[in-house]
């Protein structure tokens, strides 16, 4: 069933694949202070024990900064560390099951790629937000499906925040925000920048 939407607008940071726990926290901390709206913990290169340790440390950091932490792909991990929610791809589990596990106030997001129908089904299943993309070629992972700017306009009636993801830069994100993107999801555009805080502010300026 539909779940009441969360209200969010701004930059949705996604963590890079980082094996050094202390370095991960050092990279994230100034970005939370600079006004990141949400943080998603995503790490594809460490084992389950390391993921639990990193996610737990990030949860403490995010709680002190007042920034919701969302765990990628793993509702059980999100529940175990008390995260704000979970983000699910199309093969990462059932939205309704994640909602039942995490509770009515959790943020449950869904990747909907280039498909409005998939987003509609996700919202009906209880998703708090939907993510469309990739809008541009991404440095973080293969992105064979391409979302278009009109999809953001066409999805207004969903009634939940819409996330744009995939190859976003401060230069190409403005039109996506103008078309209806509530959140810009970014990994390398911030974390691989020479000055990550300045890069974050560049994305934030798209909402000005």
UniProtKB/TrEMBL annotation:
Q: What is the recorded name of this protein?
A: Thiamine-phosphate synthase
UniProt catalytic activity: 2-[(2R,5Z)-2-carboxy-4-methylthiazol-5(2H)-ylidene]ethyl phosphate + 4-amino-2-methyl-5-(diphosphooxymethyl)pyrimidine + 2 H(+) = thiamine phosphate + CO2 + diphosphate; 4-methyl-5-(2-phosphooxyethyl)-thiazole + 4-amino-2-methyl-5-(diphosphooxymethyl)pyrimidine + H(+) = thiamine phosphate + diphosphate; 2-(2-carboxy-4-methylthiazol-5-yl)ethyl phosphate + 4-amino-2-methyl-5-(diphosphooxymethyl)pyrimidine + 2 H(+) = thiamine phosphate + CO2 + diphosphate
Q: Which pathway does it take part in? A: Cofactor biosynthesis; thiamine diphosphate biosynthesis; thiamine phosphate from 4-amino-2-methyl-5-diphosphomethylpyrimidine and 4-methyl-5-(2-phosphoethyl)-thiazole: step 1/1
Q: Which organism is it from?
A: Stenotrophomonas mori
Q: Which family does it belong to?
A: Belongs to the thiamine-phosphate synthase family.
Its function, per the record, reads:
Condenses 4-methyl-5-(beta-hydroxyethyl)thiazole monophosphate (THZ-P) and 2-methyl-4-amino-5-hydroxymethyl pyrimidine pyrophosphate (HMP-PP) to form thiamine monophosphate (TMP).
The prosthetic group or cofactor this protein requires is:
Mg(2+)
Report the domain of life of the source organism. Answer: Bacteria
* Top EC group: transferase
Query: What region holds the Thiamine phosphate synthase/TenI domain?
Result: 11-190
């Amino acid at each position: 069933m539909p779940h009441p939407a969360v209200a969010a607008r701004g930059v949705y940071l996604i963590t890079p694949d980082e094996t050094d726990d202390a370095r991960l926290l050092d990279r994230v901390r100034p970005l939370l202070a600079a006004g990141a709206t949400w943080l998603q913990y995503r790490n594809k290169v460490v084992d389950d024990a390391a993921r639990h340790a990193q996610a737990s440390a990030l949860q403490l950091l995010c709680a002190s900064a007042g920034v919701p932490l969302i765990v990628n792909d793993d509702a059980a991990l999100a529940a175990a560390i008390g995260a704000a929610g979970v983000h699910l791809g199309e093969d990462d589990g059932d939205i309704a099951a994640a909602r039942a596990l995490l509770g009515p106030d959790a943020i449950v997001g869904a990747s909907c790629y280039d498909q409005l129908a998939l987003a509609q089904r996700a919202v009906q299943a209880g998703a708090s937000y939907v993510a469309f993309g990739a809008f541009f070629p991404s440095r973080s992972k293969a992105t064979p499906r391409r979302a278009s700017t009109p999809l953001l306009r066409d999805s207004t009636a969903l009634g939940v925040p819409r996330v744009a993801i995939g190859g976003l830069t401060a230069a190409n994100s403005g039109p996506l925000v103008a078309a209806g993107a509530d959140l810009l999801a970014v990994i390398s555009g911030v974390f691989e920048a020479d000055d990550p805080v300045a890069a974050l502010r560049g994305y934030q300026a798209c909402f000005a």
